[in-house]
Amino acid sequence: MLRIGLLTSGGDCQALNATMRGIVKTLYRQAGEPVEVYGFEDGYQGLIYERYRMMDNRDFSGLLTRGGTVLGTSRTPFKLLDTPEADGVNKVEAMKGTYRKLKLDCLFMLGGNGSTKTANRLSEEGLNVIALPKTIDNDTWGTDMTFGFASSVEVATRCIDEIHTTASSHGRVFVIEIMGHKVGWIPLYAGVAGGADVILIPEIPYDIENVIRVIEERDKHGARFTIIVVAEGAISKDEAALSKKEYKKLVAARTTPSIAYDIAAEIDKRTGREIRIAVPGHTQRGGTPDAQDRIFATQCGVEAALACLKGKFGVMIAQVNGKMCRVPLADVAGKLKYVDPKSDLVKEAKAMGISFGDE
Ligand code: F6P
């Protein structure tokens, strides 16, 4: 009997169910022995409090196209891992206890950066853990791609497309705020795919004067409208010069809902142009996974199952230069993958006239 645990942790995304389907279908076919599947509810909380449900073949049918996660998810911040829960429970000991009590052979953890740090800790504590790279943000170190990213780029691109038509009709400037946490992968990809005029990402600090120049030049050439895609974590050159502490203080003191509003107010003040804001927000994590995500999620699920059957634990499933592989959890935990400002895509976007606000 092979006993495995599944959990989904952190912000959800479109291809979590498709990934779990890949793991379980492969195990059923390849294990050569009966497989018992324990699905932990709401991420690490389920492991801490022994909240799980037994799952079988039928639970994984019809999941390829279903967004969200059938297990539910939650955030259990890594920095609070050694702080007892409100009821005094020691999280790490409780998770180890559940794992041992259920006699699990392997825990599959589908999660992003913070969740991977916790997975690494559990692996160091002696549990057999395999992590799978989930996040719309695509910021997981050690893998070229994460599942959820492609689908969220699709959603964000559609939003930019739709704004284009109305921006053009009314001759307005639009600021569209795109998710991505501290990195600019989704805004960069969706911005290029959606034909944005300006893309502001955290990795390339902007100067608002450069953004205004783009609007004015477009006006001069009769373009009528300008589409500015701004990453939720974008920073100005002045902000980039601050210490981490000073910047955090500045963000905490913000009176507007988010950065798009600050940028819009600044443009309004300086140009008097008619300006609107669009924030697609969590729609970027919603809906069905796109084809690329379904494929990658399936690959990740299959490779994770095969790693388990080979006894390869303490790893994250990854894709590097198009090849599926395993990377040690200890090598990836705690590191972020940023957009390289000198990458081909940034250079190409600049070459055809997209401004990143830096020059
Ligand atoms: O990590 C995924 C993500 O959607 C980020 O892009 C965003 O910053 C964050 O999660 C939003 O978190 P929450 O769902 O807790 O509002």
General description of the model:
The strands form 2 sheets. This protein has a 7-stranded mixed beta sheet with strand order 3-2-1-4-5-10-11, with helices on both faces. The N and C termini lie far apart (61 Å). Helix 7 links the parallel strand 7 (198-200) and strand 8. It is of the alpha/beta class. It has helices at 16-30, 44-48, 91-101, 113-124, 149-170, 185-193, 208-220, 237-240, 244-252, 259-271, 291-309, 329-332, 344-351, and strands spanning 2-8, 35-40, 52-55, 106-111, 129-133, 173-178, 198-200, 226-231, 275-278, 315-320, 323-328. The model has no long low-confidence stretch (mean pLDDT 97). Helix 1 (16-30) runs parallel beside helix 11 (291-309), helix 5 packs across helix 6 (185-193) and helix 7 crosses helix 10. It folds into 2 domains: 2-148 and 289-332, 3-Layer(aba) Sandwich (Rossmann fold); 153-285, Phosphofructokinase domain (Rossmann fold). Residues 11, 112, 135-137, 179-181, 232, 285 line the site of 6-O-phosphono-beta-D-fructofuranose.
Itemize the secondary structure elements and their pairings.
Elements: E1 2-8, H1 16-30, E2 35-40, H2 44-48, E3 52-55, H3 91-101, E4 106-111, H4 113-124, E5 129-133, H5 149-170, E6 173-178, H6 185-193, E7 198-200, H7 208-220, E8 226-231, H8 237-240, H9 244-252, H10 259-271, E9 275-278, H11 291-309, E10 315-320, E11 323-328, H12 329-332, H13 344-351
Parallel strand pairs: 1-2, 1-4, 4-5, 5-10, 6-8, 6-9, 7-8
Antiparallel strand pairs: 2-3, 10-11
Helix pairs in contact: 1-11, 5-6, 7-10
This protein binds 6-O-phosphono-beta-D-fructofuranose.
6-O-phosphono-beta-D-fructofuranose is lined by residues 11, 112, 135-137, 179-181, 232, 285.
